[in-house]
């Protein structure tokens, strides 16, 4: 969704797109990952390249990673 945002989008539409992205991230992180595939999908939602898009979500992702490797 981030890649679909263009410079000529209205402020209202931009706000709606960011809200949609946020809802997707919340839904994907609502349940801890149980395997590496699920974790990878969550990671891609939270991190964009070398930037963390959602700091709060990154904390949840970190807890999910600890759970997968048995640290939690």
Q: What overall geometry do the principal axes of the alpha carbons give? A: elongated
Q: How are strands sequenced across the largest beta sheet?
A: 1-2
Helix- and strand-based class? mainly alpha
> What gap, in angstroms, lies between the N and C termini?
32 Å
Q: Please describe the biggest sheet, giving its number of strands, its sense, and whether it closes into a barrel.
A: 2 strands, antiparallel
Low confidence ranges? none
Whole-number mean pLDDT: 77
Strands, total number: 2
Count of alpha and pi helical runs: 3
β-sheet strand percentage:
5-15%
Number of domains: 1
In short, what is this structure?
By secondary structure, the protein is mainly alpha-helical. The protein contains three helices and two strands, in the order H-H-E-E-H. It is elongated, with a radius of gyration of 14 Å.
Summary keywords:
72 residues, mainly alpha, two-stranded antiparallel ribbon, 3 helices, 61% helix, elongated
Task: Describe what you observe in this structure.
This protein is mainly α and 72 residues long. It has one domain (10-68). The chain has three helices and two strands; from the N terminus they run H-H-E-E-H. It has helices at 11-29, 36-46, 55-68; strands at residues 47-48, 51-52. Strands 1-2 form a two-stranded antiparallel sheet. A hairpin with a 2-residue loop joins strand 1 (47-48) and strand 2 (51-52). Helix 1 (11-29) runs antiparallel to helix 2 (36-46) and helix 2 (36-46) runs antiparallel to helix 3 (55-68). The model has no long low-confidence stretch (mean pLDDT 77).
């Amino acid at each position: 969704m981030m890649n679909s945002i263009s410079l000529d989008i209205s402020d209202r539409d931009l706000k709606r797109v960011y809200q949609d992205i946020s809802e997707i991230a919340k839904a994907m992180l609502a349940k801890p990952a149980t395997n590496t595939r699920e974790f990878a999908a969550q990671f891609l939602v939270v991190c964009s390249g070398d930037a963390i898009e959602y700091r709060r979500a990154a904390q949840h992702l970190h807890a999910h990673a600890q759970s997968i490797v048995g640290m939690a």
